[in-house]
Each structure stands twice: as structure tokens, then as C-alpha cells.
Write a structure and sequence with these properties.
34% of the residues lie in helices and 25% in strands. It contains nine helices and ten strands. It has helices spanning 43-51, 73-78, 96-105, 120-132, 148-161, 178-189, 204-207, 228-233, 235-242; strands at 3-14, 17-28, 32-36, 58-63, 66-67, 81-83, 166-170, 196-200, 213-218, 221-226. The strands form two sheets. It has a six-stranded mixed β-sheet with strand order 6-7-8-3-9-10, with helices on both faces. A hairpin with a 2-residue loop joins strand 4 and strand 5. Helix 3 crosses helix 4 (120-132) and helix 4 crosses helix 5. The longest helix is centred in the middle third of the chain and has 14 residues, at 148-161. The two termini are 36 Å apart.
Length: 244
């Protein structure tokens, strides 16, 4: 079994209080993994450590067999890592295709030309990515003029345009209507298997059927891990997450 992400005894504290306390996780190539837990469990902090947005205190992070704990974010991205964020981080005044083309700039040796524009190939890739999420018709529309659910789709298109081998999705269903959630689930389910997907989500009922394995975090520790049936039936899950 090829391992896409391997985390061993990862620790991170803030003000002396542990946010991630000895977490160890393995994600196989092409796997669909769901990470759940109550507010403050450390889910987004874990993502920030994997991407390099936060430095670890100790422990190991290996991407595709390579230790990356000491690498900056952009070098991890170059190795095949992409993510979305809990809070949308896009450029509202630019078009949808501009947002995606700009995200590709950091992955390429190309730079702005003398006229301040990006290479045309970036826009071809941007439109292909928008087509994958059903937004090609809106490619030239300013981001500020599209619905919130479409902005979530643009974020995923931006990540997919980078051709990642590991995609981290931080609450992709947050703030969406029931209809939008159904569409987003279809979009995520259609991501090719050459990309492993690790997703944080609070809407557990909606997200559970997207995952092959589920990890439950509580106070920065893994307390349960397994299949959907194993995790849902575990009394520790019901106690800390479902409140029963």
C-alpha cells in the first residue's frame, strides 16, 4: 500500500496548551478520509501543520514518502499538496478564471510579462478546472458577482487546477444550502483516484458517505479511527461528538 500522508506523534501547543497532542495518521494513495470532532478538537490546526502554515513543535510529517516537516508551504505544494480553507480566501474583484490562473503562478517558473498578464496556458488550465466544477460559463464573471456556493466551487477548482496528489478540504460544505451540499458532494465524489482527499466537515450526516476511513479528534488527540460503521458505533464518538 502506497502511503500519501504519514503523520507520526505530531505535537503543537499554543501558550503551553496542546492543540495537537501526539497525533499519528496514515492516509493511503487515493483514499477518502474524513476528520471529525467537536469545535476546538484541533482539526484545522492539523491541516495548518500539514501544509506548513504553522510550524510543528515535534513529530514527523511525510508526504509521498518524503519528510517535509522543515519545508515551507510552497515547497510542499510543489510536491503535490493542495488545500481549501474554512474561510474563503479568494480575490473578489477578479474574475473566476483570473483567481485560478493567479493560483497557478506560484507553481510555475513563468512570471508576469511586460504587459502585466499571465501566460495563456494558465487560462486554458483555469477554464478546464472551472468546467470540472460546472462553472466554465462564469469564467469571466467577477468573483464578487457569483453566489456563495459557487465561490466554494471556485476554491475547489483552484485546488484541482494544481493537479494535486493530496487534497485537503476544510469544511467544503459549510454555509451551503441542501441543494448546494448535494452538488458539492457529487463534485468531491468525482475527484479522480490519483488524488487522495482528506476532508474536515461538521455536517457529519452529509459527509460520512464520502469517506472510506474516519478519524475522530478530541482535544488534539485521535480517539477513534476506522470505517464509518466502526466510528459511528464507538461509544467514544457518541460521547464527544454526538453528545450521547
Amino acid at each position: 500500500m502506497k502511503v500519501t500522508l504519514k503523520i507520526e506523534n505530531l505535537k503543537k501547543s499554543f501558550g503551553g496548551l496542546p492543540a495537537i497532542d501526539g497525533v499519528s495518521i496514515e492516509v493511503a494513495a487515493g483514499e477518502r478520509r474524513l476528520i471529525i470532532g467537536p469545535n476546538g478538537a484541533g482539526k484545522t490546526t492539523l491541516f495548518n501543520l500539514v501544509t506548513g502554515d504553522l510550524p510543528r513543535d515535534s513529530g514527523s510529517i511525510r508526504l509521498f514518502g518524503e519528510e517535509v516537516s522543515g519545508l515551507p508551504t510552497h515547497r510542499r505544494v510543489h510536491r503535490g499538496l493542495a488545500r481549501t480553507y474554512q474561510i474563503i480566501t479568494l480575490f473578489p474583484k477578479d474574475s473566476l478564471e483570473d483567481n485560478i490562473a493567479l493560483s497557478l503562478l506560484g507553481l510555475s517558473k513563468a512570471r508576469w510579462n511586460a504587459f502585466g498578464s499571465l501566460p495563456g496556458s494558465f487560462y486554458l488550465d483555469a477554464r478546464r478546472a472551472l468546467a470540472r466544477v460546472g462553472l466554465e460559463a462564469l469564467a469571466k464573471r467577477p468573483l464578487s458577482e457569483v453566489a456563495y456556493g459557487d465561490k466554494r466551487r471556485v476554491e475547489i477548482a483552484m485546488a484541482l487546477a494544481q493537479k494535486p496528489r493530496l487534497l485537503l478540504l476544510d469544511e467544503p460544505l459549510a454555509g451551503l444550502s441542501l441543494e448546494e451540499r448535494a452538488g458539492m458532494k457529487q463534485l468531491i465524489a468525482a475527484i479522480p483516484r490519483e488524488t487522495a482527499v482528506v476532508m474536515i466537515e461538521h455536517d457529519m450526516d452529509t459527509a460520512l458517505d464520502l469517506a472510506e476511513r474516519i478519524t475522530v479528534l478530541h482535544y488534539g488527540r485521535v480517539i477513534v479511527e476506522g470505517t464509518r460503521a466502526e466510528v459511528v458505533s464507538d461509544p467514544r464518538t457518541r460521547e464527544v461528538y454526538l453528545g450521547t
